[in-house]
């Protein structure tokens, strides 16, 4: 039986580092089918948002994690590999030094991407397929550990987008300037509020909130349902959230500030319903690699694979 192409994606975020190895299932819309998904809660943002750099210990842990990922990737022998880093690495004064350290010690070329590129990769999953027929505009809300990316799409095309220094880890570290809340509200009121839009949420926290609201992937979560889950969580301490809602400790603290950001964005945009597809940045990276494979050809990617992991 012929196997679908295999690819590897690494997402170095502010709250966690992920490895996704997936095969592409062809169809009207190619889909990344997971072979392996690993999440390591390194929380790089705790350093960066307070010290403006990665500590030696965090850099060491990140390098060791990516070295382990490299060994796993070599077992699967993917056609291509891509590693991306987002908000924490963007802001770390020693980010480029750590990238070079990873290249030398792990053989992985880690690319620090901006908010716009992050949005493009996530949208490669075509989340608008979940929306009701006839929906013209939607606001894509991606809340990470270090930043919130807002992307307004109309008729399937990106109309305008912006990145805000509002993130779950940043909030926990009291490293958010109050003016950033106002900047996000002003942006939404300028670009979104006059439109009839639905919401699409991205990120591990909104996925967990969506499940706690007992919604399936095809079912939208209302703002009221999200607010009820938020109110139940915020009155508990972290250990109670772990016990009562079966959350991982690395999720139990960040899920509350995440819910606050989503609720704020939805309120300001007049969004009553948000859809939550089960994919994120790593899935988008996989789809981009597959698209590149189709454009460049199999042989070019095998050469790329060999050069990336040496």
UniProtKB/TrEMBL annotation:
Coiled coil location: none
CDD domains assigned: ASKHA_NBD_PPX_GppA
Lineage start: Bacteria, Pseudomonadati, Thermodesulfobacteriota, Desulfuromonadia, Desulfuromonadales
Annotated Ppx/GppA phosphatase N-terminal domain residues: 39-290
Pfam families assigned: Ppx-GppA
SUPFAM superfamilies: Actin-like ATPase domain
GO terms assigned for molecular function: pyrophosphatase activity
Species of origin: Desulfuromonas acetoxidans (strain DSM 684 / 11070)
Origin: domain of life: Bacteria
Name this protein carries in UniProt: Ppx/GppA phosphatase
InterPro entries linked: ATPase_NBD, GppA/Ppx_hydrolase, Ppx_GppA_N
